[in-house]
Amino acid sequence: MNVLDQFRLDGKRLFITGGSRGFGRVIALAAAEAGADIVLNARDPDALAKTAAEVRERGRKAWTFVGDVADPATCEALCARVLVEAGPIDILVNNVGGRNLDVAVENTDLKTWQSFIDLNLTHVFLCTRIIGGAMLPRGQGRVINIASISGLIANRGIGGRHYEAAKAAVIHFTRATAADWAPRGVTVNAICPGLFMTEPNLAWAKQHPEVIETFVKAVPMGRTGEPHEIGPLAVYLASPASSYVTGAAFVIDGGYTLW
């Protein structure tokens, strides 16, 4: 096997939450190009159908499951369906998440806090428990959690600290689960993106351009990331090339956290 062959995903099946847009779509298409069949989840059936068509254009199979995994009951039911209708799953990518709300801690009510914890953290636990747990009897598998550099730092000029709290928890949940599952053949790793111009951030840039400008000034590379730059890292973590990597949190932020 040559070095490039170690990045192939032929014969593997990948399930990704939030797979219709942004990072989810990019990771799904990158994995398809590496040879994986793709199981997609998102809330928007039309966007899901479009991404599924793009997967099939690359010669791979695609399944779609509509549902909001930020709702714990929906998430549990959907994961159970995935295993029955599209399993077995070899690679799980827990991608759903977001800030979406700029509210100071002192003005955040419990319902809002809990809803964003469910969005950014609880679904990671549930999908890992159900989809990742089904990998354990087979003695092999990959779990990739999309965390954030916000789990390592506090962002400037923005509220909604539920996001930092949840993403920090995702990083440590990744490490703890990796320690538990390493002897059983399943690796668990996290990707910690900086500022990437996904659809939500493009909308945020229109509403709060000063936040984006302040952030970019602190990036040594002097620019935001583009979603396609996430794909190769996800493929690496999903592939045999990363066979000795577990419990890692890969920062991809143009150098933002260096300062």
Run of helices and strands: EHEHEHEHEHEHHHE
Tell me the total number of β-strands.
7
Oligomer: single chain
CATH architecture: 3-Layer(aba) Sandwich
General form? globular
Strand order of the largest sheet: 3-2-1-4-5-6-7
Task: Output the CATH topology.
Answer: Rossmann fold
What descriptors fit this protein?
single chain, 259 residues, Rossmann fold, seven-stranded parallel beta sheet, 8 helices, globular
Describe this structure in words.
With 259 residues, the protein is α/β, with parallel strands linked by helices. It has a single domain, classed as Rossmann fold (3-Layer(aba) Sandwich), CATH 3.40.50. It is built from eight helices and seven strands, in the order βαβαβαβαβαβαααβ. The chain has a seven-stranded parallel sheet, with helices on both faces. β5, α5 and β6 form a beta-alpha-beta unit. α1 packs across α8 and α6 packs across α7. The longest helix is centred in the middle third of the chain and has 23 residues. It is globular and about 45 Å long.
